[in-house]
Amino acid sequence: MNHSPGTRPSQLGGLDCPIPNAVVPVAGLGTRLLPATKSQPKEMLPVARKPIVQYVVEELARSGVRNLLFVTGRGKAAIENHFDPDLALRESLGKAGKEELLAALDFQELGLNILYTRQSVQRGLGDAILQGEAFAAGQPVIVALGDSIIGIEGNSTACRRMAEVFLAHDAAVVVAVEEVPEDHVSFYGIVEPGGVGDTFAIRSLVEKPAAKDAPSRLAVSGRYVFFPGIFEIIRRLRPDKRGEIQITDAIRMVAESGGSVLGVRLRPDETRYDIGNLPSYFETFIEFALADPDHGPRVRRYLRRVLARSRGGA
Ligand code: UTP
User: Domains of the chain by range and CATH?
Assistant: First the structure.
């Protein structure tokens, strides 16, 4: 469903997710996007009309998630402010008759219970996920990275699909995977598949391998479902050489000790937009701007003109 700014958040929902709880880590330093991230969270950078993290939240609501825990950190208060109701803004938009904007800002209509906790020291994604242990309360939990959007405008229900696979197969871990070009494998966790198809067993994982050593081109894509035992495994991990606790290491331990780790392939219309590096952020912005129902055609004409001009000058 297209979620143009006029679409009410309540129109996103549908089926409840069989795993209703999701952790969204947003505590990372975002150094690859400096200077843009010096005093603002990378998850709040805009992609076309909305901050990145808003697409993530809407995507989770679309999958039927009900409870969402943000793992925030120093300098991330803008995320909390964004999702808080702003009564003064609401009143002034109401008076100005800006109904469409009012609807687009009504996050309460997403039907999500949004909570926050902090990662005091940025010790890596594994450690950020560990901060969600009390929230998970011994139940399976979804994890969605706050700097990655799945599908144009977050138009995906991959998390619901992953939750269904998790429960149907009594899995320990389910990860979303996407095939990436060979020159991108060194940016991501890459899986060693033990089968083919839309859902397949994962034998092992390697964090950011060189292309020549990679077991496949299937990259872990920022969405996970974990069994409650994952927290104990994370606690046992040693930091890597950058001092970070890597979630890839925890998943590899589960896979290599015989636990059921499954990959769910993202569909062709579920591209993973990773905003954590500059080229990918630029590309995502352009693609989302081109898809904007009101302004996309104009952006397209502008890009054509700019490209023609730069070809002329070359
Ligand atoms: P990244 O792996 O992109 O790390 O995080 P980063 O620290 O944010 O960015 P760089 O490497 O300095 O540029 C992936 C997701 O995990 C969160 C980030 O906020 C992002 O949403 N994260 C990462 C944490 O919550 N805590 C961490 O310690 C690291």
Answer: 2-276 (3.90.550.10), 277-314 (no CATH)
Alpha-carbon distance 184 to 66, whole Å? 34
pLDDT tens digit string along 292-313?
A: 999 999 999 999 999 998 876 5
d(CA 41, CA 146): 10
- Residue 131's pLDDT is 98
Q: Is the dihedral of CA 58, 63, 66, 67 positive or negative?
A: negative
For ligand 1, atom 22, which residue shows the shortest CA distance? 28
**Protein residue closest via CA to atom 3 of ligand 1:** 276
> Which is nearest to 261 in space by CA: 213, 214, 229?
229
Q: List the beta strands (DSSP E) in 152-241.
A: 173-179, 189-193, 199-207, 218-226
For ligand 1, say whether the CB of 222 is within 6 Å of any of its atoms: no
Position 107 scores a pLDDT of 84
The pLDDT tens digits of the residues spanning 105-123 come to 888 888 899 999 999 999 9
Q: Please indicate whether residue 118, judged by its CB atom, sits closer than 6 Å to ligand 1.
A: no
pTM, 2 dp: 0.93
205, 192 in Cβ contact below 8 A?
Answer: yes
